[in-house]
């Protein structure tokens, strides 16, 4: 068997129970949104459910990665594996990515269902093409934010455990200090006018908000749009590559907890 396939198979096996639990809770939440909306005769009631469940999925990838890393730390199997650190980490990213894509497709179908059928009388009419474009961009943004947070979590987790010879308090200070220092540097760079102008030079317009409006004893939903700068997305993608590479190098030091 291909070594990478073996790693993927193992990570799917140890994580699938958590995935089905998460999916079950999500389906129940979406069904409850429709059920309560029918009960109250307010189809727009599905909007808060869609927004809330979508925001929760910013945390899906980090939470799942932390669960897998902690599970691996209990067995210590990676201390004896011949696989490279980058392979061990990418296997987990691949599994989590496939799970999140499935969940976001489910959310996208739910959004299409409530906009074009269940709540078509109260949601502002939009073309399917516009919906599709917005769904692709917003799903990509959701994936990127989730995995950006996950790369930071993975990097900081490996930093924390690579410093096993230090007291736990000192390790926490180093981890928190790393995040604090990075945010100071990033905030300073973003405050520079040339960088501000460069960031706002290239933008993509997407549907970014949906506002509730109450009239004639009926809630309705209106959509708004905003511009998303492109260059920061490229920057954060490169930063993710750097963090994953650094985490894999630390992991190859045979992190022990």
From TrEMBL:
<keyword id="KW-0812">Transmembrane</keyword>
<keyword id="KW-0472">Membrane</keyword>
<feature type="transmembrane region" description="Helical">
    <location>
        <begin position="47"/>
        <end position="69"/>
    </location>
</feature>
<feature type="transmembrane region" description="Helical">
    <location>
        <begin position="233"/>
        <end position="251"/>
    </location>
</feature>
<feature type="transmembrane region" description="Helical">
    <location>
        <begin position="172"/>
        <end position="192"/>
    </location>
</feature>
<feature type="transmembrane region" description="Helical">
    <location>
        <begin position="138"/>
        <end position="160"/>
    </location>
</feature>
<feature type="transmembrane region" description="Helical">
    <location>
        <begin position="20"/>
        <end position="41"/>
    </location>
</feature>
<feature type="transmembrane region" description="Helical">
    <location>
        <begin position="90"/>
        <end position="118"/>
    </location>
</feature>
<keyword id="KW-1133">Transmembrane helix</keyword>
<protein>
    <recommendedName>
        <fullName>Copper ABC transporter permease</fullName>
    </recommendedName>
</protein>
């Amino acid at each position: 068997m291909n070594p990478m396939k073996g790693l993927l198979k193992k990570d799917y096996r140890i994580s699938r129970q958590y995935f089905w639990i998460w999916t079950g809770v999500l389906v129940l939440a979406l069904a409850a949104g429709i059920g309560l909306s029918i009960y109250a005769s307010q189809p727009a009631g599905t909007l808060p459910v869609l927004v809330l469940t979508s925001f929760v999925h910013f945390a899906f990838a980090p939470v799942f990665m932390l669960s897998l890393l902690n599970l691996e730390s209990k067995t210590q199997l990676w201390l004896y594996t011949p696989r490279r650190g980058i392979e061990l980490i990418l296997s987990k990213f691949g599994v989590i990515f496939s799970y999140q894509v499935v969940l976001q497709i489910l959310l996208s179908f739910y959004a299409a269902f409530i906009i074009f059928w269940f709540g078509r009388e109260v949601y502002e009419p939009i073309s399917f093409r516009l919906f599709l474009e917005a769904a692709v961009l917003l799903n990509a943004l959701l994936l990127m934010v989730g995995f950006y947070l996950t790369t930071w979590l993975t990097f900081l987790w490996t930093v924390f455990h690579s410093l096993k010879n230090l007291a736990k308090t000192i390790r926490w200070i180093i981890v928190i200090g790393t995040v604090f220092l990075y945010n100071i540097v990033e905030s300073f760079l973003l405050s520079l006018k040339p960088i501000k102008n460069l960031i706002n030079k290239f933008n993509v317009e997407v549907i970014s908000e949906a506002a509730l409006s109450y009239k004639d004893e009926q809630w309705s939903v209106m959509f708004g749009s905003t511009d998303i700068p492109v260059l920061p997305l490229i920057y954060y993608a490169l930063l993710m590559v750097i963090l994953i590479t650094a985490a894999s190098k630390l992991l190859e030091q045979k992190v022990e907890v």
